[in-house]
Amino acid sequence: MEFNNPNVLYLRVNDSESIKFAVLTESLQLSFKMVTTNRATPPTLNLIEKAGIIRAEKTTLDNGISLYAINAGEQDVVKVELLFDAGSWPQSAPLVASATNNMLEEGTSMLSARQIAEKIDFHGAFIDLRPDKDIASVSLYSLNKHLENTLSVVEQMVKDSIFPQREFDIYVQNARQKFKVENEKVKVLARKHFLQAVFGNEHPYGKLLQEEHFAQLERQQLVDFYKKYYSADNCTIIVSGKVNESTVALIEKHFGKTDWENTKKEPTSFEPLSNSLKKQFIEKKGALQSAIRIGRKLFNKTHPNFQKLFVLETVLGGYFGSRLMANIREDKGYTYGIGSAMIPMKNDGYFFITTEVGADVTNAAIDEIYFEMKRLREEVVPDDELQKVKNYMMGELLRSMDGPFSLSDRLKGLLLCNLDYDYYEQFVETVKNITSDDLIELAQQYFKQEDMHEIVIGQRN
Predict the structure, then answer these.
(1) Topology (CATH) of 57-255
(2) Burial class for 27, CB neighbours closer than 10 Å (0-12, 13-18, 19+)
């Protein structure tokens, strides 16, 4: 039945059995036509053919900074994100990289911390500071009409921060207190000890932060790190949202000059030294639950097996309908939630499974985790289950590209591993073409129980 008469208004009314269309004609006579819908038959699902991601336009500022512009917004707002190779990877001591980044709002030679906050708030803008293992970022969210004023503040932050001693002392005190509170959580302890086990305590990805490190931190360490790593030759900029020529011109004005101090940076390299003790139980007296983290060191997105293994990891624990959720939550009732993930970083990567369970079922939950990994090594994933996972992953890919700021995040992930947009087209092809035989081969290679690090934090049962 077709409803294509331009002189007729069709009103759609749903009920539990069918869909009724009330047809209002020009003569205002009301009649009903019945269309029966078979609700037992779901609509046809089709995998996407291409990622179709909106690509950034790359330009180079006068001082050599790479600028990536993503014009994809309807609202008159932009996100300007400055990325510095100033994560914990090159720091000389614990806390230096994170403290440096977090204190960029605490004052410049021209603006106090209060003045910075007032100027940003007055223009309805927002600054987000994020130190990570590899990258430290400074992000500004601003209306285009106020971009001149808000970019001026950010420029002073990244070029002229002075790290006042008073603000430094307050920051260290607050960060130390937050550390103590967080370290009471078993899931936080499990995450930290897992990374230490996988990469080793002398590796930037695995260094275990201790409370005494806060007392050892000195303001001059931040000043030196800032001068060395917050410079034009160590910076990349991504602007996303409603981007136009004036947006790019303002970025060039504030960040394209040669007044940034460039310093010689020696390349740093570290070799992971995993803990030979594969299983660790760390008692946390008074804990109501045990935190479990199981996994191993892997690789980042540049590895030829990364995308395929991502599919296998999704089957195991990467979405709500995964095998771990079906077994340990739905069937056994050991936990409210369990999941897995693959984390790619600039110089390495890792895979992990995480959950929290009662102390009395900790061992049983661990046994079931290894049981599900064993099934993937020995049994072929059914076609209908694999198809469901493929549909989910394609949908998540599209969702992750919804909006200019999400597109900015996708680009940042590519830049971290020195990849281009072809990665996402390859991802679509990988998901479409991977087979159950591929998955069992991957499981036999990467999901061996003897390769896993197992960390449990909780009360001894």
Answers:
(1) Cytochrome Bc1 Complex; Chain A, domain 1 (3.30.830)
(2) exposed
